[in-house]
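Exercise 7. Predict the structure of RNA demethylase ALKBH5 from Labrus bergylta.
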Amino acid sequence: MATSGYSDLREKLKSMTPHGDEKKNKYADGTSNGGEKGKKRKSRESDDDDYEHSDDSADIREQEARRVRSSILQKNTFTPEECALIEEKIDDVVAKGEAGLYREHTVDRAPLRNKYFFGEGYTYGSQLEKRGPGQERLYRKGEVDDIPDWVHELVIKRLVSSGVIPEGFVNSAVINDYQPGGCIVSHVDPLHIFARPIVSVSFFSDSALCFGCRFQFKPIRVSEPVFVLPVRRGSVTVLSGYAADDITHCIRPQDIKERRAVIILRKTRPDAPRVDSDSPLSSSPVERPAPLKAKRTRRADPDAAHRPRVLEMDKEENRHPSNSRQRRHSISSENYWRRGGQDSDKHRESSGRKVKMRRH
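Solution. The predicted structure, encoded as C-alpha cells:
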C-alpha cells in the first residue's frame, strides 16, 4: 500500500469514486443545489404540517355540520309492527302504479327509484322547459291522485298526535321507492313551492341522508359530505332552517344497500306557481300509464348503480327487429318517458337523448 501512495485501502476506494462521495457529502451538509432542494422539500413538508394545523377549512366544515345538525329534528316514531303494516300499503301503491291505475303525473319512474305523487305533484329535472332552481311548477289541480286514506290514518295522524306537525299541515305526500344502489342527487326542496318544515318517514331498511355533496356521473361519484345523518327504519326526520334552505341534501347509491322507501310530507305554498294551461306538459287530456312488469328485490346489490341497464324497449327491438321503430315510440314514450301530454313529435325528437340518460 505504501508504494502506491495510499496508506489505507479506504482512501484508495474514496479516490476512485470521488463523485459519489462528494454527492453524498453535498446532500448531507446542504452545500449544493441538491441540498437546497432537500432543504426545500423538508421545509415544504413541514409547511404542509403547519398548514394542516392552520387551515380553517376543516373548522368551516365542522361549523357547517353543526348548523345542519341543529336544524334537524329526528324521532324514532313507528314500531316494527307499524312499519310492516305501512310497508304493505306501500307495496299496494307500487302494484297499482304498475297496473296503470293512477293518473299520469302520479307516477314518475327512474332507474332504481320510482316516485309517487299524491295531493300535489310538480315538474322538476328534465321535465322543466327551463332548467335550474326556481323553475319548478306544480301541476294543475287534479292531475295527480289524492293522498291515500291510509297515509292520513297511519302516518299523518300519528305525526300530528306526537306534535311533529300541526293539524292540516300536509297537502302533498310523495313516496320514493328505492332499489339497492338507487339515489337522489343533491338538491334543495324548492323554496317557492314548499313551506317548511320538510318531513320524511323511512321504511323497509336503514339508510342515510347526506348534506353538502357534489355528484359526478359516468360513472356516478359523490364527494365527501359535510354531514351524514343516519336514517333508521320507522324514524321521522324533520328539516327546517339551515338544513332545509341553505345546503343541499341527497341520498348516495352506497347508502341504499336494501330496498328502502320514504314518505315525504309537505305543504305547498298558496302562491306556488303552476304549469300553465298552454304548456306542453298540460296540453293533452290526463292519461293513465300502461302496466309495467314489476321489478322488486330486497337483496342488496352494491354494484347496481354502476351496471348498464337493459331497457324494455331494447328487449322489444331484439325480439321484433322489423318494427323496432314503431315499438320504440309506443313502448318507450308510453311506459318510460311520460312527460305530461307532450305530443308524439316531441317524443320522437327527444327519444334518443332520453334513452341515453336511461342507461346510466
